[in-house]
User: Fold this.
Amino acid sequence: MITEYDITANHVRVFCLCTGFAVLTGLGAWLRIPILPVPVTLQVLFVLLSGLALGPHLGAASQLLYISAGLCGLPVFAAFPHVGPAVLFGPTGGYLLAFPAAAGITGWVGERLGERNVNGWWACTVACGFGLLVIYAVGAGWLAVWLQMHGKSALLAFSLGVKPFLLVDSLKALAASGIGVAIGPRFSRILR
Assistant:
């Protein structure tokens, strides 16, 4: 007897894709240039790409899965050897918490602008720009609070948590756009 709750092949594919992007984001944390207080990693590339490839809901779900893995103590955050919930209260906590929203916004804007049509690269690039804005706003906002709690000026948040990353994150956004255009049609067929 088949019910509406039976697991289908599509459910398995969706689960594997969400898990795959969560794993890629975790691996991206390990590839880092350790500048303080926020390291340069490849996480942003995979966050933006998850939104473009999986769409707003599944992209956000993949990043929630990534954060959940980190909260359970798996060493997926760039703050390693620090693991678990304490990482979210450190200087990078806001950036991590912004990942699901950034993936969702990137996917949503990409869908609205037509990432799958002739203007796909431009649509993906604009979508990634919005995703970066979310990451910077939430991340720098939390960094400002963290700096102030540690006796430093909240005004340092931009110079420490945004300015050093603008160029490298822009390059990651362009890379995510190119990859998103290349793999987008394949993922559309898989997710049907």
Remarks:
- The radius of gyration is 17 Å.
- The beta strands are 32-33, 40-41.
- The chain has six helices and two strands.
